[in-house]
Amino acid sequence: MLQDRFILPLTHKGYTTKTHPMNIKNVCCIGAGYVGGPTMAVIAQKCPHIKVTVVDINKSRIDAWNNNDLTQLPVFEPGLDDIIKNTRGKNLFFSTEVDKAIEEAEMIFISVNTPTKTYGKGKGMAADLKYIELCSRQIAKVSKNNKIVVEKSTLPVRTASAIKSILDNTGNDVKFQILSNPEFLAEGTAVKDLLYPDRVLIGGDNSMEGQTAIQALVDIYSNWVPKELILTTNVWSSELSKLTANAFLAQRVSSINAMSEICEKTGAEVSEVARAIGMDSRIGSKFLKASVGFGGSCFQKDILNLVYIAKSYGLDEVANYWEQVVIMNEHQKQRFSDNIVQTLYNTVSGKKITFLGWAFKKDTNDTRESAAIKVADNLLNEQAQIVVYDPKVSEKRIYEDLDDLKTRPAEENRKLLKVTNDSYEACKDSHGIAILTEWEEFTTYNWEKIYKQMQKPAFIFDGRGLLNRKQLESIGFMYYNIGSGTE
Ligand code: NAD
Ligand code: UDX
Predict the structure, then answer these.
(1) Which of 29, 211, 285, 298 shows the smallest number of beta carbons within 10 Å?
(2) Angle, vertex CA 368, rays to CA 364 and CA 371, nearest 5
(3) Residue 10 and residue 149: Cα distance in Å, rounded?
(4) Measured between alpha carbons, how far is 67 from 83 in angstroms, rounded to an integer?
(5) What are phi and psi of 343, to 5 degrees?
């Protein structure tokens, strides 16, 4: 059985090969972000025989990962603090010494950011691969012995060939094997997703060396993931599968959000429609929750990247098809803020509006592409006075998110929008409360107390379908829920 674990026959494109086992003892991960941190923490926990070093050029991020106070870790994920507590300083290390970590490692994960390009060709659509290229050049420069380089970042299909070209042409005659191992974790459930993944995907070369490299990574995951859940494919399929998975997931959210608008016009109830269609086993019940719009660092970026790839191959119909998912999402955010203005008698100028939640979903401190940012920006354009409460997002982050839009001067953002860590204070004297994130704690609030302290009529705009309409209406609130029609 042990033999089995180390020399697993891989069926790949119809042929089976036996590979020589590689005994990986030292891995490093470049990029200590939302993926690199949690992913490496779980590998360290499940593979105590492997030394795992996570490196980043961002010193304050590394300092935060090394903070003794585990509430100050840069990434909030339920359960992550315990894993860090048990592994950090034993076989898990966070460091800014990138070169040293590269040199020591037999396997290097690249987990740096791949944001949408903000300049030049492909601006606003293509993935910006400059961080990937920098890493590749650094690996090439520093490496003195053969290494396996693993793409953990989400990348456009065929990026591995660019990485290979850099590594092979600028290195010190060292042999590199490139694997694609996209990460499917979702924020807020990262630890659970890493411990019990639906599948692990590994793409590699068909050559003997490629198969050996695949096997080395299979061996790492086999420490806790059942073998039948570890899929091996060619590199291009693996790269493209990641973009495809995110496109399909986002498409479901945009599809149900499109239906939510029809529901509001017709008296149908989107949660009932979702339940009815979700019970069809061919459709399934997940990712059918209507909302103010999907956010997060991945969905929009990855679909736009897919659109760009399709366009660059001249596949305009394919590109237009997927772009519509993003267009629908923009519309959903816009109509949520439009509805707030319209309901509050067509003006929010000078009115206090409360935002409960700023993160793009519950159980994370991540705000990238959060719907709250766009909704706030729209309302600030209407001169609303916004007060934000989020249990995990800092004031600094919220102002940075708004400033990044460059819609108005930073001082104006600070004048029009305030951040508080007292949710009841946030709601006091408010004309309307907008629920932007589905934090559980909002369901436990004393809504009678909140109602008494608000301007009347007191409105709630529930962008997450989180609260109980009957209860709130019996208190006296005017309650608007995404996708609930008036009969
Ligand atoms: P992130 O921005 O949180 O982290 C990336 C880190 O890489 C940053 O801390 C940055 O300082 C560091 N970095 C950049 N260039 C570097 C260099 N040359 N050397 C050392 N460090 C460098 O990003 P993330 O959310 O962890 O995402 C990373 C990748 O994983 C992206 O490609 C993303 O699409 C993908 N992904 C993200 C998620 C998610 O839920 N966030 C899920 C699956 C896949
Ligand atoms: C996503 C993918 O799920 C994950 O597999 C991939 O690795 C990274 O991108 P993430 O963005 O972290 O993960 O969270 P996810 O749970 O997918 O939610 C994305 C957005 O869609 C959130 O804003 C969420 O609130 C929204 N959403 C999700 C809905 O509005 N309705 C749903 O039914 C599901």
Answers:
(1) 285
(2) 90
(3) 20
(4) 14
(5) -70, -35
In angstroms, what is the span from residue 137 Cα to ligand 1's centroid?
A: 17
Cβ–ligand 2 distance for 291 under 6 Å, the answer yes
186 lines ligand 2 (CB under 6 A): yes
- Pocket probe for ligand 2: among 299, 435, 462, the residue whose CB has the most ligand atoms within 8 Å is 299
Q: Ligand 1 site: residues with CB under 6 angstroms?
A: 30-36, 55-58, 61, 98, 111-114, 131, 134-135, 153-154, 183, 185, 187, 297-298
Q: Using the CB atoms, write b or e for 145-184: b if 16+ within 10 Å.
A: eebbbbbbbbbbbebbebbbebbeeebeeeebbbbbbbbb
Mean pLDDT by 10 residues, the chain (487 residues): 35 45 93 98 98 98 98 96 98 98 98 96 95 96 95 93 91 91 98 98 96 97 98 96 98 98 97 98 98 98 97 98 98 98 98 98 97 98 98 98 98 98 98 98 98 98 97 98 85
C-alpha–C-alpha distance, residues 69 and 71, integer Å: 5
Chain-centroid distance, C-alpha 74: 15
> DSSP of 34-79, one letter per residue?
TTHHHHHHHHHHH-TTSEEEEE-S-HHHHHHHT-SSGGG-SS--TT
For residue 28, give the ligand nearest its CA. Answer: 1
- SS3 annotation, 344-374: CCCCCCCCEEEEECCCCCCCCCCCCCCHHHH
DSSP 129-182: -HHHHHHHHHHHHH--S-EEEEE-S---TTHHHHHHHHHHHHSSS--EEEEE--
C-beta of residue 233 within 8 angstroms of C-beta of residue 254: no
Tokens at residue 82, please? 């315990």
The full DSSP string for 370-435 is -HHHHHHHHHHHTT-EEEEE-SS--HHHHHHHHHHHTSS-HHHHHHHEEE-S-HHHHHTT-SEEEE
